[in-house]
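Handoff note, outgoing to incoming analyst
You'll be picking up this chain. Sequence as last confirmed:
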Amino acid sequence: MRERLCFNFRPLEVDLRQTSSKLFLLAAFAVFCLTQHVAAQNPSAALASLPDADALIYISPQRILNEAAPRVMTPAEVTKMRASFAEIKQAAGIDPATVEYLVIAVRFNKPAGDLSFVAPDVMIVAGGDFSSDSLLSLGQLYLQDKARVEKYGSKDITVLKIDPLVAEAEKNPILKPYVEIGAVPLTANSLAIGNLRYLKSAIDAAQGNGRISTATLESLFRDPNVLMAASGAPLASFAKSFGLLGLENTSRESRCDTRFGNFYTAITMTGTNFSLRGAMNADNPDTAKIINNLLAGLMKQGISAVPDKNAQTILQGLKMSARENEIVWEADIPEKVVADYLKSSPPAPPASSTPVKTTKPAPKRPVTRKRTKKS
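Most recent structure output, in case you need it:
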């Protein structure tokens, strides 16, 4: 009897093991899919490995071209746009409609030891459904001997000298950081272009050193579903650039610990509207009300001076208010208003290859007066 029980129990034990393994694999797959979905919904995860920045501009070409543009364009215009994207992909290996994000980062620097002003670092980072190595190889093939390759860490930076700036940089040393511009693949599907100092910081950040702060990304992505957004700290950047925090080789205790001027603005889509949201820190409620009243008066005069009626309609939908320590602006603009504004914009005149002929006016005959005899 015992043998029969053991014999009958073994298949059941095997079935349970197989079932539990399948359930484990299914759960792991579900978690992986959920993680991928959350990462796609939260763009800050893709930017978490960038270097520190004082100002950021984020653009989502993928959402703008695939979701927003068809709402304000005619079907014929959309078809033409997608056909041009197909040509670009065939030529360069990248479809603009699959670029997930485009980020412009600006980092201000402390003055040099000789008290000279140091220009800010600027970098553009693009990421999406493309091969950064292939795209950079294509660029190197096009530039040929005009570009050189500089090794930094485990990355190869393609460096291009901007000849028009070489002579200007000798007259104005502030331009020296921009004489050479580099490009480097940060990951398999992200590419960075900028001045060399910032690119090297980006390579270090990708390895975990000097990464962008969580607070900066939280300020930029108050709403993760943005089409485009911008944020920055102008007063803190001024303090850093002009020595209030010390020099590049020395530090000074800050006496300007305020968030005054820190701003955020973003454009999203809500239903059939394009929504604009933004805020600026004013330090305290009284200052917020003073600045809000000043800006409100200037806006009324500015809107009336705009000649385009559709542009006036868009600007009139912008509402500003003082809320606690912030000045908040918001607007919900119907997509039809945006479409009408784009249609009313005059197209650029086509460039004519044949010179315009000018005809000279025929010379006038001199008028002769008849002499009259005096009586």
